[in-house]
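Hi support team,

I submitted a single chain yesterday and got back a structure, but I'm not sure I'm reading the token output correctly. Could someone confirm the output below corresponds to the sequence I sent? I've pasted both exactly as they appear in my results page.

Thanks,
R.
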Amino acid sequence: MEQTLLGKVIVVDTIQKFGQLMMGVKTTPFLYLQLYSDINKHPLENRVSCYYILSPTGNEYIVPVNHIENVIDCSDELETDQKVAVYD
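Hi R., thanks for writing in. Yes, this is the structure output for that exact sequence:
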């Protein structure tokens, strides 16, 4: 875990961390970005490498998806009833 100006950077690499993150996104708004594996490819020809989530507390979460550090199956999009800011 690394400290930044905003808060902590947390790599979600265990079931426990993923569960904690899911509880958090169900109760508070957050910023959600999908980071692609190849920045030179069109999104239709690409795949998501990881999710970047910024919480209102300033904590930053990196959730590996199609990545060597992926230890959990979280390829589905996050489910929440909260307001979500996304890059379109």
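A quick pointer for reading it: The first strand starts at residue 2 and ends at 3. Let us know if anything else looks off.

Best,
Support desk
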